[in-house]
Write a structure and sequence with these properties.
The chain is an alpha/beta fold. The chain has a 5-stranded mixed sheet with strand order 3-2-1-4-5. It is globular and about 70 Å long.
Length: about 180
């Protein structure tokens, strides 16, 4: 077998590949994935993703419910134009350093006419303590933890919806980049 490149070229290519690999891994761990293939990616409509196609397959969005203490509010919320969902899939495992930024972006969103909801799979006592400790200006709804992890990898993270279509989503580190 003859190598394609000779001399220092293989070492340079290897080092550049390693550098690119490390950059991508670090970026994805700190922010969100560069390319999102999930049913909750930016530009996807959750309501459309919940509809059966008639071919017997389960739709890509099949466990999406936003419940208060009595009702599933998902249909009502998905019909609204300006919605911000603050995802905290597990309050015990959330990065508490992000709640100051979450509080500020939530206040800005409310001021600009957005309906802001927290969404979590945690117990209501944990969420009440979280709301009180960080002075969060929204109420929490319940959703399955696996569904929330599928929606956004961040804990906490923010998703902006317009009539059920995902307009933007950010990790708490990047919420200042959200254009309301």
């Amino acid at each position: 077998m003859q190598p394609i490149f000779k001399g220092k070229a293989p070492k340079i290519i290897t080092m550049l590949s390693l550098g690119a690999f490390l950059f991508i891994v670090q970026h994805v761990l700190v922010h969100l994935p560069i390319i999102d293939f999930r049913a909750y990616a930016i530009g996807k409509n959750i309501t459309e993703g919940m509809q059966y196609q008639g071919d017997g397959e389960i739709p890509p969005v099949h466990d999406f419910m936003l419940e208060d203490s009595q009702n599933d509010l998902a249909p009502e919320i998905l019909a609204k134009e300006k919605v911000m969902l603050v995802i905290v899939y597990n309050a015990d495992k959330s990065d508490n350093t992000g709640f100051a930024a979450i509080r500020e972006i939530s206040k800005k969103a409310i001021h600009k006419g957005y309906s802001v909801y927290g969404v979590s799979a945690s117990f209501s006592n944990d969420l009440s303590a979280l709301q009180e400790k960080y002075e969060l200006p929204f109420e929490f709804l319940f959703c399955d933890e696996t569904t929330l992890k599928t929606m956004i990898r961040a804990n906490p993270g923010v998703i902006i919806l317009n009539k059920g279509t995902v307009v933007d989503k950010k990790n708490f580190i990047d919420v200042d980049q959200i254009k309301l």
